[in-house]
Amino acid sequence: MSASAVFVLDLKGKVLICRNYKGDVDMSEIDHFFTLLMQQEEEGLLCPVMSHGNVHFLWIKHSNLYLVATTNKNSNASLVYSFLYKLVEVFTEYFKELEEESIQDNFVVVYELLDELMDFGFPQTTDSKILQEYITQQGNKLEVAKTKVPTTVTNAVSWRSEGIRYKKNEVFIDVIESINVLVNANGSVMSSDIVGSIKLKTMLSGMPELRLGLNDRMLFALTGRDKGKTVTMEDVKFHQCVRLSRFESDRTISFIPPDGESELMSYRINTHVKPLIWIESVIEKFSHSRVEIMVKAKGQFKKQSVANNVEIRVPVPSDADSPKFKTSTGHAKYVPEKNLVVWSIKSFPGGKELLMRAHFCLPSVENHETEGRPPITVKFEIPYFTVSGIQVRYMKIIEKSGYQALPWVRYITQSGDYQLRTNT
Amino acid sequence: MTDSKYFTTTKKGEIFELKAELNSDKKEKKKEAVKKVIASMTVGKDVSALFPDVVNCMQTDNLELKKLVYLYLMNYAKSQPDMAIMAVNTFVKDCEDLNPLIRALAVRTMGCIRVDKITEYLCEPLRKCLKDEDPYVRKTAAVCVAKLHDINAQLVEDQGFLDTLKDLISDSNPMVVANAVAALSEIAESHPNSNLLDLNPQTINKLLTALNECTEWGQIFILDCLASYLPRDDRESQSICERVTPRLSHANSAVVLSAVKVLMKFMEMLPKDLDYYGTLLKKLAPPLVTLLSAEPELQYVALRNINLIVQKRPEILKHEMKVFFVKYNDPIYVKLEKLDIMIRLASQANIAQVLAELKEYATEVDVDFVRKAVRAIGRCAIKVEQSAERCVSTLLDLIQTKVNYVVQEAIVVIKDIFRKYPNKYESVIATLCENLDSLDEPEARAAMIWIVGEYAERIDNADELLESFLEGFHDESTQVQLQLLTAIVKLFLKKPTETQELVQQVLSLATQDSDNPDLRDRGYIYWRLLSTDPVAAKEVVLAEKPLISEETDLIEPTLLEELICHIGTLASVYHKPPSAFVEGSRGVQHKRLPPRAGSGESTESPDVGQSGPSEAPPAVIPSQGDLLGDLLNLDLAPPTATVPSVQPSMQMGAMDLLGGGLDSLMGDESDTLGGDIGGSPSMGAGLGAAPAAMPASLGGAPAVGGGLGDLFDLGGGVGMPTGSYVAPKTVWLLAMKAKGLEISGTFARRGGIIQMDLSLTNKAMSVMTDFAIQFNRNSFGLAPAGPLQVLTPLSPNQTIDVSLPLSTSGPVMKMEPLNNLQVAVKNNIDVFYFSCQYPLSLLFVEDGKMDRQVFLATWKDIPNDNEAQFQIKDIHLNSDVASNKLQGSNIFTIAKRTVEGQDMLYQSVKLTNGIWVLAEMRIQTGNPNYTLSIKCRAPEVCPFVYQCYELVLKN
């Protein structure tokens, strides 16, 4: 059904740790993995699934590690990849960083986790908060009090333990919208969308029932209300705590939240977004002598708003040298290892137009390697504002003890995949 | 302090030291020692020698230590099965521990110890754990049943664990339900025919309830299991869909894909005019698009599946073109897949945008991606007629970049555009010709040569261009050689006056200096064609070309249906059925989509337009010499006239040449036919028929092979020895269902050897290689007695005839109908499946003549219930001729009796598996209807024996 065995390999293909779940694939098959990988890399045709004989390798890479699952069946590939990414998530929460060293430093816990996360190829409990209740790094001394499996493991509510206590009951809600834009060299917007995410930091006692109200157009249409601005969400994805069938029937977002930080939901809005920071660039390349770059950035958002930590990354040829910059605001820096000029602007008010000029020399000997034409990318953050106009209308919190709890809401718009293609 | 310290002890005598430490009295030291052992195990050292010492540490109240020891056991128990028994007691004890964590740990680990001896001790603890009060233990025990089944299936069945597992589907805890479903599905997979899951509306309802409550993984198990259910009607189908759709909002991509699988499958049952059907279609698009924001590997899986979904239901994503635009930082595998889907979604509405994007991609640096982008532009041109002009000009722009691989790729696609829109864009030929020298890839060279040949009359220096290729003829790849041969023949037919020398040169290069049979065959055919009937040659070589299809790489519909049933799995990623890459799954039934309710829409639409060999009467060679006659004499004297003149002697020359050629061409074939045909007049007549018999589908590469196949058939008809009747070949596998591979065939029994005669025709645009064949188990154990002998690659439009000897020693399984044979043929492209039926006479052995006495006894012995009567109508043969005819097919007449003007023939037949069939045939003089009574201990064969009688007597 899914994985026969899971391996963690270092960058040279050496197995750091592994777990054989089903025993139907020879564990030595993993030796072929790295050879295949190298072969594919050489041909430039890397693929996340590889096979050798009737053994299939499904793999992902994380920092300096390969996580590989083997199988000889028609496994559910999406499940395997989801699981591998879940492994990364769990290990990261346990060890802060998941890398070669942390695997070695914690191999006992890694084995324990591998044992608990999957059984006979079937993923089991993978919620790290719950796992941490019974798999700890301090050697689990068996005490009389601890003779019970956290009921959470098998509960219908498998993401929150009972008996959580806070002095002050609060929920922090972050509404973060990322703007994805792809602009063609001639300035036309090829595609744009908004990917929103609502993140919670829950500090609530007991088993609270929460209900989140958004200005969701579908909800308003259902309830027959028609006031103010509403938002059409193209696709919504929820944390498993949200009752999906309830949402499906009446668009109510009701849930018992996990404790601490979590992503409650994400949504996608497919409307045409005006690029918040508009870039016009002229990159002139004079072979054998120089490159001249002129970048004009314009804040196409309200005057009252300010974009923070703006970074405009402009590609330059790999053989350029002797950079010279001139900026109207902020400062520009050459990052040779990435072949980029990074123009940073601490705060960029709406409606303003800023300018940067750069000058590079080119060697007289032409570079033979053809280079790609990477796009200009932009990073920014605009607080107190969402492009879509989505709003949290209410967050109802009901717990049987009847405490009063306060929700805090914060809105941020930021750049997502924000690319502008260039001419040269 | 981290665990890494445990890895650092590499002293000599380590094992000895560890042994001492393991046996220490101090708990802490013991634990440290076990950790060191595990550390050594992790780095791959063999620490199996410590087995008894480690097992001694098993009895501990320290959970961490216990887990480590268990881990050690899992790793080494298999290599030390006897010692593993030592651990059993502790396991059994642990399964009764007060702590559910320990009970679960014990039962989980025990299942992982794949030692047969242990399994019997496992049963009792497992039984208890399956009924444990703690759901954590029950869910672990559920999985353990699957583990045990994997080691000893019989034991699991005998112990009734399967029933307990089924009961767990009704468990109150959703996690337990999910694991029970997962375990049952896993077990069912290895028993495809067991009705283990036994899904019915009640269990489905339980599953759907659990679906809302279990973990993301549990949801996947349940959804995957639901996907294998076949709802009773469209209403049940709809209600399941309604309860599954909320899963589309799950954050886990795998849950979403499994839900998509269920919906895509059950949707098939909904009437298309149903409102809900439309709603469902609309609901599917957004989650599919969102999958593209997942991690790249998941995006890849999603894209491969979207590729299938777009082929099955294009309407779902037709407005979502933009999301498939390639991002600069996408990994290459994502880029290539996106591109594929972009082409599939391209339509008149979005073509402008698509083209702009493709042009952008074509200037990137990644070679594979750029090539595919250029190819995509060509495909757009073919798909969306309105865009063709823009596509061509875009391609010309790209050719101007002079980037070598871009130019080559562009030329390849321009060839296809010419095919699709003849006489429209030929003005660009001049530009193409400028790039002739830079072409170094066979495909591009072949394309360019095709263009030159096809438009020879418009290219002034076509002969020079083609001649330039001729110099290095033998260094070219087959593809180019074949194309060059055809192009020059075309040129010759168009401009005969200036190109005689050229055509003669190429013909001799192809026929005399080449070792490649394909090339030689084609060369001879052209030569022959030109020498006998230039008019016919013109008709054949310059025939109108069939249209090329708009969509390429479409997955054959039955395979597509099967893959839709496997959404999210490896099969959907590979675009191959699981049987193609999973061992031991060949007998497994292929998954199919459920039939649509209400409407009589059948999933299979048999293509009636069979393209069998045309039965045109062979044209007699006109006794005239011609141009080619001259050509043949060129060595001696240069041609003086281009006007054909009557020169009978010349024709003889041609005959000789062909006679010699044929000997080598016929090869084994001529042996089996037993006729000495080469050069004989009758064969000459056969050859004369070639032009007429050649299919009209002569594209850039004429189906010369096909023509030859027909020739041999004709020849076979002439020199047929007496013997069993062989039915003409029928098409078994349609090209459209097999990515261009067409298979027709028949069965024959020749001298006691069963043969399957196949004609493989390549109707695709690329060469096929690596053929192999396999049969499914069948009623009489027919199996290939050797590999499928297709030694040369099968070029486009070529046909190869092969005879595959069969044995009857293969595995047996009763088929429905009895004489059904399921065949899988593999080539470099894919695996294809078809089924065909063989005449039972194939299995009638030569020593099937029964002794008279035995016959009488047997006839009486077989109960009358087993007797079947049949009428054979319209036979105008007397009994002797009939019995002779039947004898040819190993139906032996043992006795003949004449009673009241009725001839009674008593006959016997013996099948390869030793079954005897007795028959009585009554022939009344003057009555063309025979009465046949057949008796056999296996009465189900009777109708098939009757069929053979009919076939033999009527042919």
TrEMBL record, chain A:
<comment type="similarity">
    <text>Belongs to the adaptor complexes medium subunit family.</text>
</comment>
<dbReference type="GO" id="GO:0030665">
    <property type="term" value="C:clathrin-coated vesicle membrane"/>
</dbReference>
<keyword id="KW-0333">Golgi apparatus</keyword>
<dbReference type="InterPro" id="IPR028565">
    <property type="entry name" value="MHD"/>
</dbReference>
<protein>
    <recommendedName>
        <fullName>AP-1 complex subunit mu-2</fullName>
    </recommendedName>
</protein>
<keyword id="KW-0597">Phosphoprotein</keyword>
<keyword id="KW-0472">Membrane</keyword>
<feature type="domain" description="MHD">
    <location>
        <begin position="168"/>
        <end position="421"/>
    </location>
</feature>
<dbReference type="GO" id="GO:0030131">
    <property type="term" value="C:clathrin adaptor complex"/>
</dbReference>
<dbReference type="InterPro" id="IPR050431">
    <property type="entry name" value="Adaptor_comp_med_subunit"/>
</dbReference>
<keyword id="KW-0968">Cytoplasmic vesicle</keyword>
<dbReference type="Pfam" id="PF01217">
    <property type="entry name" value="Clat_adaptor_s"/>
</dbReference>
<dbReference type="InterPro" id="IPR001392">
    <property type="entry name" value="Clathrin_mu"/>
</dbReference>
<dbReference type="Pfam" id="PF00928">
    <property type="entry name" value="Adap_comp_sub"/>
</dbReference>
<dbReference type="InterPro" id="IPR036168">
    <property type="entry name" value="AP2_Mu_C_sf"/>
</dbReference>
<dbReference type="GO" id="GO:0016192">
    <property type="term" value="P:vesicle-mediated transport"/>
</dbReference>
<keyword id="KW-0653">Protein transport</keyword>
<comment type="function">
    <text>Subunit of clathrin-associated adaptor protein complex 1 that plays a role in protein sorting in the trans-Golgi network (TGN) and endosomes. The AP complexes mediate the recruitment of clathrin to membranes and the recognition of sorting signals within the cytosolic tails of transmembrane cargo molecules.</text>
</comment>
<keyword id="KW-0813">Transport</keyword>
<dbReference type="InterPro" id="IPR011012">
    <property type="entry name" value="Longin-like_dom_sf"/>
</dbReference>
<dbReference type="InterPro" id="IPR018240">
    <property type="entry name" value="Clathrin_mu_CS"/>
</dbReference>
<dbReference type="InterPro" id="IPR022775">
    <property type="entry name" value="AP_mu_sigma_su"/>
</dbReference>
Automatic annotation (TrEMBL), chain B:
<dbReference type="InterPro" id="IPR008152">
    <property type="entry name" value="Clathrin_a/b/g-adaptin_app_Ig"/>
</dbReference>
<feature type="domain" description="Clathrin adaptor alpha/beta/gamma-adaptin appendage Ig-like subdomain">
    <location>
        <begin position="725"/>
        <end position="835"/>
    </location>
</feature>
<dbReference type="InterPro" id="IPR002553">
    <property type="entry name" value="Clathrin/coatomer_adapt-like_N"/>
</dbReference>
<feature type="domain" description="Beta-adaptin appendage C-terminal subdomain">
    <location>
        <begin position="844"/>
        <end position="954"/>
    </location>
</feature>
<dbReference type="InterPro" id="IPR015151">
    <property type="entry name" value="B-adaptin_app_sub_C"/>
</dbReference>
<dbReference type="InterPro" id="IPR013037">
    <property type="entry name" value="Clathrin_b-adaptin_app_Ig-like"/>
</dbReference>
<dbReference type="GO" id="GO:0048513">
    <property type="term" value="P:animal organ development"/>
</dbReference>
<dbReference type="GO" id="GO:0006886">
    <property type="term" value="P:intracellular protein transport"/>
</dbReference>
<protein>
    <recommendedName>
        <fullName>AP complex subunit beta</fullName>
    </recommendedName>
</protein>
<dbReference type="GO" id="GO:0030131">
    <property type="term" value="C:clathrin adaptor complex"/>
</dbReference>
<dbReference type="InterPro" id="IPR016342">
    <property type="entry name" value="AP_complex_bsu_1_2_4"/>
</dbReference>
<dbReference type="InterPro" id="IPR013041">
    <property type="entry name" value="Clathrin_app_Ig-like_sf"/>
</dbReference>
<dbReference type="InterPro" id="IPR000225">
    <property type="entry name" value="Armadillo"/>
</dbReference>
<dbReference type="InterPro" id="IPR026739">
    <property type="entry name" value="AP_beta"/>
</dbReference>
<dbReference type="Pfam" id="PF09066">
    <property type="entry name" value="B2-adapt-app_C"/>
</dbReference>
<keyword id="KW-0472">Membrane</keyword>
<keyword id="KW-0813">Transport</keyword>
<dbReference type="InterPro" id="IPR012295">
    <property type="entry name" value="TBP_dom_sf"/>
</dbReference>
<feature type="region of interest" description="Disordered">
    <location>
        <begin position="581"/>
        <end position="624"/>
    </location>
</feature>
<dbReference type="GO" id="GO:0030276">
    <property type="term" value="F:clathrin binding"/>
</dbReference>
<comment type="similarity">
    <text>Belongs to the adaptor complexes large subunit family.</text>
</comment>
<dbReference type="InterPro" id="IPR016024">
    <property type="entry name" value="ARM-type_fold"/>
</dbReference>
